[in-house]
Amino acid sequence: MGRRFLKNTKIQTYFLVSLILLITLFLKASVSVNAQKNGDEFDEAKKIFNLLTPHERVGQLFMVSFQGKEITAESNIGRLIQQYRIGGVYLSAENENFSNEQDTPTQVLTLTHALQTMAVESPPPAIPTNKNSKPLTSTFTSPVPSSKLGEKNPFVGGNTPIPLLIAITHEGDGFPYTQIRNGLTEIPNEMAIGATWNSKNAEAIGQVVGQELSLLGINTLFGPSLDVLDNPRPERDGSLGTRTFGGDPYWVAELGQAYIRGVHSGSNQKMLTIAKNFPGFGSSDREINQGLPTILKSLDDLQRIELVPFFKVTNVSSKALTDTMGQTDGLMTAHIRYQGLQGNAPISLDARNLPTLLALKEIVPWREVGGLIVSAPLGAPAALEGSSSKESFPARRLVQDALFAGSDILFLANFAFNDNPSAQFRNIADAIEFFQDKYSQDTNFQAIVNKAVWRVLKAKIKIYGPDLLVAEVKQPPKNLALLKSSPLDLAQIVQAGVTLITPSTQPGFNPLAAPPKPGDNILIITDDRLAQDCKNCPSFPLIPKTALQNIILQLFGPKSTGQVSADHINSLSFVDLKKTLSDKPLDNVEQAIKKADWLIFLMLNVDTKNQPQSDAVRLLLRNRYDTLRNKKLLLFAFNAPYFLDETEISQLTAYYCFYSRGSQYLEAAARLLFQQFEPKGASPVGIPAIGPLDLSPDPKQNIQLEPIQKIDVNGRTISLEKKDKVDLKIKESVLLHTSVILDRNGHPVPDGTSVNIFRGYPDEGFNLEPLTAKTIHGVAEILIRKDRDAYLRVSVSSNLAVGLGGFDIGPGSPINTPTATITPLPSPSPTPTFTQTPLPPTATLTVTPTPTPYPTMLPLPVKSVTRSITWIDLIFSFVGIMIVGLLGFFGGGARFLLEERIRPFLISLAFGLAGYIFYGFITYWAFPETGYQRIIIEEGIKNHWLAPIISTMGSAIAVIIWFLKPGRLFELKLIAPTFQRIEKAIDFLGKK
């Protein structure tokens, strides 16, 4: 009996050890996700979820727009909040929720207070649901541990007081993508920020947006847009215009993340950011949501360009934990088709292709910790394109398709075929009732809804904290005094983005020999097109016709510097110019053009379909060149820089782009005209008439190499200064990095730019094969090992940019041997200081490597790789361990009892997992710095074969040892005779 118990105890011990090891590995593999501070949010979301009634759960999925300012229990929006328990609302001037002609901040604050009050008050009696609605089934499941449905709700009337998400669009540059235009700081659009090439500027603008909107009670920002405009085509209708940070994925990602960081910081983390337009709208041929385009992009293309910024702002890996403020809270989908994904529906409604994108390894961890997906507006023309009926609005199909595709929040804006508020309310109510009915009957549907509700609750807890149900959601009116109080130096940001498009000049050279002289006649022609927030709202000019004239007179007129007098400056509009270029010219316009010494055009985008006058300056430059002789022609673009062709640009004295049209940009135009600052910006997008966006390394720079660490033969590291002379023994190494490598615009090159490292032993007359490194923040690092007892020379190049000298590694010194003569490159131009990386050294070495053929290469230094344990390693290892364990289980044959056959299986599992832990030890704590061991281990990590080999060997050795115990292996029928013969032979030899 005791022996039997002992056997059972051993089996239990084996099993327990194996289980502990497996749990340890599971926790290790999951550390990147569980390291997030989500435990409290998870628990609180679970508690609140369990208090919600089925109708409240369904309602949390819906965010709606509404007409007017009336917020009562009888109004449409009041009924949707109190009876249908919607989770959020969207505000806009277009829907007349507020007016930009009055005190807009006070209006918006009053509105948000009324909406939130409605959300937490006890509702009127619940509305009846569909007649065939059934009680919630007993098989209800939740993504979080749930108590019994029907748990007593402690709040008055059984209404759970969950605050609303109140969202708005605030992209900058005023109408039409900034809804609140009165009372807040004028902020530039994304392209104007992108032209500064400075993430600090993006963060500063984001801080202002976050602070001011949160003071008005708004807690959700639909933005920023993370579209990459990699191939602008101005001949297309619509397009992104200035609603993008630029045309390079790296820079869009950097600036987008900085903007999000600023919004979170400025709002004290009281505002959600919903980055748009996932998975990327940059190649579209029409305006967002106004038509359904098909983009010729494959999934590989999307991952290489469009998805890069979205991956950046959804990164929740352990490395990203230091910048959680830069992580977006949600993504808004785009109504768009991608030919490479082979879907007929827009990606926002595609239940096959959108989940494929959300299942990418870069997105999954973010989704697991609560990342929201918000649908594009489901009432937009792009969503309705292809609807079979124009009479019956497809409300149910739209919301169901969006949910099944992966959206957590269903954005119901303009949810009808017309602007009838009653029709929109009926459609919204029908969609919600449809979900209520389906939720009560379909357990699979319940599971999908529950996961979405859980994410919505987590998002609200982010804003209001764990005490969500009793949180104070109203902003004190006295805080409105803080509006426009930010220390933001907008003038500096404006001037940093102003760009001289053409002619191309050297820094410090102005294409204008001098500013306008007293007595010069200045004619300003402005595209003063009209706009209006809503159908019943008053119209206003985007740029008033005399705006620049008034600023010039204020700054440089008779009451200031006296450089301009009122009778020598005049203003016309594009409408006037277009009429003059027609069959019925205006005499006063003709005379003004002939009289002018300076012609200044203030241009927006060219959109002749909606704004017939918008191409007036193009027609003038093409057809009336004789009229323009001997005049200084300046074009100031206050929109995207790519609307003129080569012929039109060639007629201009100078072409400047300001990108945005706020008052600060108009003032900058006046100051630029009178040469009070030099434009320092660079276009963040390609300009077809000029050339594509070129961010390759500037060939005029001299790339330096600097030492960081010396690594001796024992793997010990010694920090070095850039001025230190480096002497290495054989098999010792040095870690070098480059100076900041700048692109042709004077900014650090994008991450991942290739840098070539050349090595040679001049005393011995040969070079080694080049190595390649990639830049991070403009700097590349490389580990160089010395393999010969001679001095080693290292040099560097990246594209056409080179290091004029080299970096010498002793002992020994360069010998005077003839080298190929290299024509010196032009002296590098002054470049801005980049504070995140070391500055280039002041000393420049003048010796360059002799260009000789490469012989057979010696063992090379190996580039550093990420040393990590992945799920792939664990799976491969576990398969090997299981195979060995099963061989051990069946290897004993039928003569062993079951418990005896289980032992080798458990031993295999325990020692195999121990081998896997040993693998983890060498990859994290005992990783060799040099030598072939490092090469073998790194290749094993990279290709995922080292972990299964070590684990399988551990399990195999343990099982073999177990079988070698007397009484086990020797008594097997097939093997025992062999061992008997070996024993007889040993006895025979012993007798001899």
What's the layout of helices and strands?
Elements: H1 2-29, H2 31-34, H3 39-51, H4 54-59, E1 62-65, H5 76-82, E2 88-90, H6 104-120, E3 165-168, H7 190-194, H8 199-215, E4 220-225, H9 249-266, E5 272-278, E6 294-295, H10 299-306, H11 308-313, E7 330-333, E8 337-338, H12 353-358, H13 364-368, E9 372-374, H14 381-384, H15 395-405, E10 410-412, H16 421-441, H17 443-464, H18 490-497, E11 499-502, E12 522-526, E13 530-531, E14 540-541, H19 547-556, E15 569-573, H20 574-580, H21 587-595, E16 598-603, H22 616-623, E17 632-637, H23 646-650, E18 654-657, H24 663-673, E19 705-711, E20 717-719, E21 733-738, E22 754-761, E23 766-767, E24 771-776, E25 779-785, E26 792-798, E27 801-802, E28 807-809, H25 871-891, H26 898-924, H27 931-943, H28 946-964, H29 976-991
Helix pairs in contact: 1-26, 3-17, 8-9, 15-16, 16-17, 19-24, 20-22, 25-26, 25-28, 26-28
